[in-house]
Amino acid sequence: MPFFRLQARLATRLNDRAKGFVNMLQEFFNFSLRTFRSIGMLRKYWSDTLTQMSQSGTESIPIVLVSSIAIGCLITLEVGNQLAQLGGKALTPRATALSVIREMGPIVTGLMLSARVGARYGSELGAMKISEQIDALRAFGTDPIAKLVMPRLVAALSMFLPLTAVSIFVGLVGGAVVASNYHHIDSSVYWNAVLNPLVVKDWLVAFLKPPFFAIIITLVCCYNGFQARGGTVGVGAATIKGIVVSSCFVLIANFYISKLVLENL
User: The pTM is what?
Assistant: First the structure.
């Protein structure tokens, strides 16, 4: 009998968790749909959008610069050492360019922004949820998704693309410095090898990713902020959950976007 009771309890827990997961997916889908529908109200909340563009874009430049130049230098250093052992040091600029433009530039930017921008979105909205400011907006007849989430989504869609471009450029410049001073590759040779062989699909892979990353990070982190419960501890938990989940989806999206573009072009 105890065994059957334990089995029944486990089945009940699994059933409850499955129902909770399905309900969460439904709520997230409705939340996302309402956010995209509210883009039509952009003019009304234009000042909020500009504020979010400044906070999410301009203020994110330092962390993007630091992370990108570090990645560019490291890739050139390691790839150049490996190719030098095989007698192919001249291929270092090309390998650096493909790594930085196609993958490392977008993914490093996405993860850094997931940590910085996603954390801010989740914590701000979580704090507003706990302090009942979101309920107050509803009481005054204001749609909190249009007021709070939509400007953040538009700001992310607007700023993630130029931030990725900055990341790629800085990563290539960092690679040029290491190639010149460590691998003794002339700068003109480096830049010719980086830029001349590039084709449309290289840039397409790079710049298709930021809009998807912006949507993922904004919707996931804002949704978790709206679901915050239990005081300041709940705000922290919702923020961390948003960062972790959005970072995982950024990595998955990065893989599939690269796969689809490179296989079909």
Answer: 0.88
Phi and psi angles of residue 142, each rounded to the nearest 5 degrees, phi first: -100, 130
Distance CA 189, CA 185 (A): 7
Tally of residues, the chain: 265
For residue 131, give the 3-state DSSP assignment. Answer: coil
CA angle 225, 227, 229 (to 5 degrees): 100
d(CA 133, CA 144): 9
Conformational region of residue 230, where left means phi above 0, alpha means psi within -120 to 50, and beta covers everything else: left
Provide the pLDDT confidence category of residue 170 given band limits of 50, 70 and 90. Answer: very high
* N-term to C-term CA, the chain: 62
Element (H, E) at 119: helix 105-130
Q: pLDDT tens for residues 13-40?
A: 777 778 877 888 888 899 999 999 999 8
Tokens found for residue 210:
């930021």
